[in-house]
Design a protein that fits this description.
The complex is a heterodimer of chains A (about 150) and B (about 250). Helices cover about 65% and strands about 0% of the residues of chain A. Chain B has one domain. Helices cover about 70% and strands about 5% of the residues of chain B. Chain B starts with 11 loop residues before the first strand and ends with a helix. The chains are: A mainly alpha (about 150), B mainly alpha (about 250). Chains A and B meet through helix 2, helix 3 and helix 4 of A and helix 2, helix 5 and helix 7 of B.
Chain lengths: ~150, ~250
C-alpha cells in the first residue's frame, strides 16, 4: 500500500521562496541563476521569484501531478468505486421509471434502463480502475486514459 | 439500548411561518449549517489575519488547506480550472467541517442528511452543465459521444454515457451521505453495547471492554473517513469541472 501522503505542503517550493526573499545563496539545483549585482534589487528578486514559481507550477504536473488526479490511497479509491457501481443502477432505474410514467410502457423501459444503468456502473468502475492502473504503472496507457 | 437513528432526527427549534402550504422552521440541521459556516469563517479569518511571511501554526494549517485544494484543482482541471477555486474551496471546507463537527458526541451531522449532500452535488453538476454549454456551446455534447467509436454501437454508447452523466450527482451525494450515516450508526451501536453489557454485573462490565475498544478504534476510523470523504468529494468536483472545460475525452 502506498504511503498516505497528500501534497499538503511543498517543502521544495517553500524553501525556494524563503531563500529568494531572504536573498541568501542557495545551492538548489532548480533555483534560477541570479547575478550577484542584482542581489539587492527587489524587483529583480521578485521577477526571479515569479519565474521560479511558474516553472515550479509547470513542472508540477509531470513530477507528481498524475498522483494528484485521484484519491491517493486505496481507501479513497474503494470509497469512490463503491459509489460508482450503485449510482449507475439507480440512475438507470430512475430514467426508466420516468420514461414508463411518461409513455405508459409500464415495465419495459424500467427493465431495459435498469440493465443499461448497471452496465454503466460497471463501465465507470472499470474506468476508475484503469485510471488508477495507468497512474500506478506509468504513462504507456495514456491514450486509454479517460476522466470518469 | 439507545436507538441509533435518533441522532439523525431533525427537530424544529422555532417556526418561521408558512409559505404556500409548506412549513418553514429553523431546525437543528440549519443551525449546524450556520455553525459550520461561522466556524470556517472565524478559523480562516483569524488564522490568516497575521499575514506572516513565516506562518504561525494556525496560519500554516490554513495554508495547507489552500495548497491541498489549489494543487488538486490545478492538476485535475488545469490552470483554467482555477476560476472555480472559490466554489471548490467552499465545498471542501463545508464538507470537511460538517463531518468533523458531527464527530463530537451529541452533535448533529449535517452531511448525514441526503438532501444536503444532494444539494451540494446538484450545485456541482449544474455548474458543470451551465458552464459547459456557456463555454463550448453544442460542443459540450461531445462529452456523450466519445471519438473513435464505430457508428454501429454509437447509440448504445451515447445512452450509456448519458446514464453515466446522470449517475454522477447520485454517486457524489450517496457516497458522502452513506459513509457518514453508516459510520455514525455503527459508532452508536457499539457504544450502546457497552451500556447494555455493563447492566449484567461485574462479568458484563469486563466484557464491555471489547465494544469499548471497538468504539475507540471506530472513532479513529471515522476521523479518517471524515477527511477522506471531503477529499473525494473535492476531487470528483474537480474531475467533473474538467469535463466542463474540456468536454472531448
Amino acid at each position: 500500500m502506498r504511503k498516505l501522503q497528500f501534497a499538503l505542503f511543498d517543502e521544495d517550493c517553500a524553501c525556494k521562496l524563503y531563500h529568494l526573499l531572504i536573498g541568501k545563496n542557495v545551492s538548489d539545483k532548480n533555483t534560477p541563476e541570479r547575478s550577484p549585482d542584482s542581489e539587492g534589487d527587489l524587483s529583480n528578486r521578485l521577477e526571479a521569484l515569479d519565474t521560479a514559481l511558474s516553472s515550479h507550477r509547470k513542472a508540477e504536473p509531470s513530477s507528481h501531478g498524475k498522483a494528484d488526479e485521484g484519491p491517493q490511497n486505496n481507501v479513497g479509491l474503494v470509497f469512490r468505486m463503491s459509489g460508482e457501481l450503485v449510482a449507475g443502477g439507480i440512475a438507470g432505474a430512475a430514467v426508466g421509471w420516468l420514461i414508463d410514467a411518461g409513455l405508459g410502457t409500464k415495465p419495459w423501459a424500467f427493465l431495459i434502463f435498469l440493465l443499461l444503468g448497471i452496465a454503466t456502473g460497471f463501465i465507470n468502475l472499470i474506468r476508475v480502475a484503469r485510471n488508477y492502473q495507468s497512474r500506478q504503472f506509468g504513462e504507456d496507457q495514456r491514450d486509454n486514459h479517460e476522466n470518469t | 439500548m439507545a436507538d441509533p437513528i435518533v441522532q439523525f432526527r431533525i427537530k424544529e427549534i422555532f417556526p418561521l411561518g408558512e409559505v404556500g402550504g409548506i412549513e418553514f422552521a429553523l431546525t437543528n440541521s440549519a443551525v449546524y449549517m450556520f455553525a459550520v459556516i461561522a466556524l470556517i469563517s472565524v478559523f480562516l479569518i483569524a488564522s490568516t489575519s497575521g499575514r506572516g511571511l513565516v506562518p504561525t501554526r494556525w496560519q500554516s494549517v490554513a495554508e495547507m488547506l489552500y495548497e491541498l485544494v489549489a494543487s488538486t484543482l490545478r492538476n485535475t482541471a488545469g490552470t483554467e480550472g482555477m476560476k472555480f477555486f472559490p466554489l471548490v474551496f467552499s465545498l471542501f471546507t463545508f464538507v470537511l467541517f460538517a463531518n468533523f463537527i458531527g464527530l463530537f458526541p451529541y452533535f448533529f451531522t449535517v452531511t448525514s442528511q441526503i438532501i444536503v449532500t444532494f444539494a451540494l452535488a446538484m450545485l456541482v453538476i449544474l455548474t458543470v452543465i451551465i458552464y459547459g454549454f456557456m463555454r463550448n456551446g453544442a460542443g459540450f455534447l461531445k462529452l456523450f459521444a466519445p471519438s473513435g467509436v464505430p457508428a454501429a454501437i454509437l447509440p448504445v454508447i451515447v445512452v450509456i454515457e448519458i446514464l453515466s452523466f446522470l449517475s454522477r450527482p447520485i454517486s457524489l451525494s450517496l457516497r458522502l451521505f452513506g459513509n457518514m450515516l453508516a459510520g455514525h450508526i455503527v459508532l452508536k451501536v457499539f457504544a450502546g453495547f457497552i451500556v447494555s453489557l455493563s447492566a449484567f454485573g461485574i462479568g458484563g462490565m469486563l466484557g464491555a471492554v471489547l465494544p469499548f475498544g471497538m468504539t475507540v478504534a471506530l472513532t479513529a476510523l471515522e476521523f479518517l473517513v471524515a477527511f477522506l470523504q471531503a477529499y473525494v468529494f473535492t476531487i470528483l468536483t474537480c474531475v467533473y469541472l474538467n469535463d466542463a472545460i474540456h468536454p472531448s475525452h
